[in-house]
Amino acid sequence: MAEPIGYDKNRAKEILTKNNIDLLIASTPVNVFYTTGLPVTHVAPNPILYVLSNQYPNLSMVRRDGEESAIVWSLYDSVKEFSWVPPSDVFRVGSLEGAVKKLLEKIEEWNLGNKTIGFESYMPRYQSEALRPKFPNAKFVNGDQTFIEMRLIKTEEEIRRIKKSTEVAEKAIEKCIEAVELGVKDTELLQIARRTIVDEGAWGWDHLTMNIGPSDPEAPGLGTPVTPNDIVRFDFGAVWEGYISDVSRGVVIGEVPKKAQEAMDYMIQVQEYCADNIKPGVNAKEFREEATNFLKSLTKRGFYLITAHSIGLECEETHLFGPGGAMDVPFEENMVLDLEVWLNVRGQGLVGIEDCYRVSGTGCERLSKLDKQIIVK
Q1: What domains are defined for the chain?
Q2: What is this structure's pTM?
Q3: 232-240 and 247-252 beta bridge pairing
Q4: Quick one: pLDDT at residue 37?
Q5: 162 burial class (0-12, 13-18, 19+ CB within 10 angstroms)?
Q6: 290 alpha carbon, distance to own chain's centre
Q7: In whole angstroms, what is the distance from residue 63 CA to residue 84 CA?
Q8: Measured between alpha carbons, how far is 279 from 134 in angstroms, rounded to an integer?
């Protein structure tokens, strides 16, 4: 049997007890992977469990004592190679109906039909609607925040995987920067990024965001060429054994426009202010205001974004703070954050930087290694 990666039975027990949840059901790929280790994500070495989940659902069930069970495709024979869930607690099904039937059977068998059951807001409707009429005396609650709470604190193995993912993403950025010259198209640069990530041994990529000057960073690959004095921004996330990174860097042929360079200098200061001042015990909601005030002490122009989001099995697991608000929680040791700060510059779009950090006992340890300034070629 495999060893748990990030899931900790005792931590799960504490969180479920605190939230008064007797059974927590995972239905999304990331939470099934987190609680079982089964390769159900879209970037698994062979994502067949993900591909076929519309016919053969993957589910995991965590009871209040932290013990787990799973439902998986009946023809999948490699559970023990990937999962720490005891084989006797892995139930094989061959249809949508079979998965629902098995889920209902186990809830009944465990005498949890009149208890508090948490499930994800993304649970397929055919599953959630089967639960309510079957167990009219149960209390159903949203389990999203409970899963996030479990995943916020990373184990050493999770941190190792995020570090490796970051190394791969940075290697892809370096290769792309080396290839940047006038006239090179974004399609060519994206090919270099994909090839590098695969050659470095990663499972794949989570995102390959990039822009050339004012082009849309969320929709690269249209054949846009590199032009003089336009910042080419690479924002990449690799996937290493299920875990994701998020790094952004820029390069320019010619010279960096003056306002863009000023913006970059401000943003580096803001990011470093965040990294220097985020420590265990600091409240995320209160710190958001402090970071905003620090930025405003540097400049009052332009649209800006300051975000600290948890990163791990998803690029943005949850925002500790960001433009949409902040969580009223303290930072804790071994949270892994992506600190990203952006200022809008006319003609260049968002100018800024993002890096992965681990919250340590005394501050933040940067996992990223690349120089922060825009490279000039």
Answers
A1: 9-151 (3.40.350.10), 156-376 (3.90.230.10)
A2: 0.96
A3: antiparallel
A4: 98
A5: buried
A6: 25
A7: 15
A8: 47
Report in angstroms the alpha-carbon separations of 328 from 150, 178, 285, 308.
16, 43, 5, 13
Residue 304 CA to residue 327 CA, distance in Å, equals 20
- Tell me which residue has tokens 């027990």: 13
What length does the chain have?
A: 377
Mean pLDDT confidence for 364-377: 96
b or e along 39-65 (b: 16 or more beta carbons within 10 Å of the residue's beta carbon)?
A: bbbebbeebebbeebeebbbbbbbbbe
DSSP for 211-233, written as a single string: EETTS-TTS--S-PBP-TT--EE
**What integer is the mean pLDDT of 251-255?**
96
Side-chain half-sphere of 148: how many Cα atoms within 13 Å? 17
- Please give the average per-residue pLDDT across 224-252, as a whole number: 97
Give the pLDDT score at 347: 86
Dump pLDDT digits (tens) for 298-310.
998 878 999 999 9
